[in-house]
Write a structure and sequence with these properties.
Distance between the termini: 22 Å
Order of helices and strands: HHHHEEHH
Strand content: 5-15%
CATH topology: Arc Repressor Mutant, subunit A
Number of strands: 2
Mean pLDDT: 94
Shape: globular
Number of helices: 6
Radius of gyration: 17 Å
CATH superfamily: Winged helix-like DNA-binding domain superfamily/Winged helix DNA-binding domain
Low-confidence stretches: none
CATH architecture: Orthogonal Bundle
Number of domains: 1
Length: 145
């Protein structure tokens, strides 16, 4: 079983690097990184969140997310909003410019995804998602002990 787990880990790493390469090719020099895009997409999908909430959900440090948020604020793609539940931890939200940016990026990415012959049925795609989620959750559970 160890060899199979190592195989999964290797494929995840290789897939991640392929995704980075594809991202750079389809988006070119737009002043945005993969990490910045991930924050925009997260806020677009989940709505207003604090930096610590984003960090916990993405399983990265608060400092890392704060750096990305600062870059997105500088681009006017995100903005701070009042947090009624916490005076010193503002909520982060998309600006209209940020909403347009993530929508434009998704449109380009979706066109790429449609051109690719993934070689997977819808059922296989769902099983892949389910299995990767189980893998991630098992690893996170073990690391939180």
């Amino acid at each position: 079983m160890i060899q199979e787990i190592e195989g999964i880990i290797n494929e995840i790493r290789l897939a991640y690097h392929s995704l980075i390469k594809a991202f750079e090719e389809v988006h070119g020099r737009q002043g945005i990184t993969v990490g910045m895009r991930a924050v925009l997409e997260f806020i677009d999908r989940e709505g207003l969140r604090t930096v610590p909430q984003i960090a916990r959900a993405r399983n990265v440090t608060r400092q890392h997310i704060q750096t990305l948020v600062n870059q997105l604020l500088d681009q006017n793609w995100l903005e701070y909003r009042k947090n009624p539940d916490h005076k010193s931890s503002s909520l982060i939200g998309l600006t209209s410019k940020g909403k347009n940016k993530i929508n434009a990026m998704k449109k380009v990415e979706h066109a790429l995804y449609q051109r690719i012959d993934w070689g997977l049925t819808p059922a296989e795609t769902k099983a892949t998602i389910r299995n990767l989620k189980k893998f991630r959750e098992a690893l996170n559970h073990e690391m939180s002990k």
